[in-house]
Design brief:
Layout lengths: L6 H40 L4 H44 L4 H23 L6 H30 L2 H13 L4 H23 L18
Helix pairs in contact: 1-2, 1-6, 2-3, 3-4, 4-5, 5-6
Length: about 220
């Protein structure tokens, strides 16, 4: 039995694995930010009567936030570099219309996330602030790539979930929570595209050229 390779389905599958990593990373980062909010509120409530205890609560929440956010950023980097970016690159190899989106996502999201992580670690120093600023700009560029990717996928796959994801990625530039919903929609839509690509008939096998027949004996 001959197994026919389907590059488009493989690209979608690789991208979908990356999206799953990114969703997990979002949960970690959300937990980290929630811990910070809880610590700040608790510290503010305790500060009037127990100044030292309130400061301790705030510092503990900040330390927990840093750890959890770093773990989330590492998971996101693994998802981007290990799966999502290679998947989009493979998709661009099958359809050059996705080349611009692939470049913007690779440069913007991956390197922007690295700079954000470095800047967060150096935020106590002055040098961390411009690093974070550059990282945010790169992340916005990455989101532009995601918007282009989603709209192109909607044109090619005729799946409204891609269109909804693209719109949410636009909103996510201003309201970050919208990105989490956009990634969920992208994950579901990629699952539909994988099924569609797997069900497509394989490309016809080209006949192998044969040499001239030997003369009859």
């Amino acid at each position: 039995m001959t197994i026919v390779s389907n590059p488009q389905a493989e690209a979608f599958e690789t991208m979908r694995r990356g999206v799953l990593f990114l969703l997990i990373a979002w949960l970690f980062i959300g937990i980290g930010l929630s811990l910070t909010l809880i610590g700040v509120i608790t510290g503010a409530l305790l500060a009037p009567s127990h100044p030292g205890l309130g400061l301790g609560e705030a510092m503990g929440a900040l330390a927990a936030m840093i750890v959890v956010v770093i773990v989330g950023a590492i998971i996101a980097l693994v998802g981007l570099w290990g799966y999502f970016v290679p998947g989009v690159k493979k998709l661009a190899e099958t359809n050059p219309e996705f080349s611009t989106a692939a470049t913007l996502i690779r440069v913007g999201l991956f390197y922007g996330l690295i700079l954000l992580l470095i800047g967060a670690l150096l935020i106590v120093f002055i040098v961390g602030i411009p690093i974070v600023f550059i990282g945010v700009i790169l992340i916005i560029i990455g989101y532009i790539g995601l918007i282009i990717l989603s709209f192109k996928l909607n044109d090619v796959e005729k799946n409204a979930l891609y269109l909804a994801a693209g719109i949410l990625f636009i909103i996510a530039i201003f309201v970050s929570l919208a990105a989490f919903v956009a990634w969920i929609l992208l994950y579901v839509a990629l699952g539909d595209s994988i099924k569609k690509a797997r069900q497509a008939p394989p490309p016809p096998v080209q006949p192998q050229p044969t040499g001239p027949l030997p003369p009859p004996v």
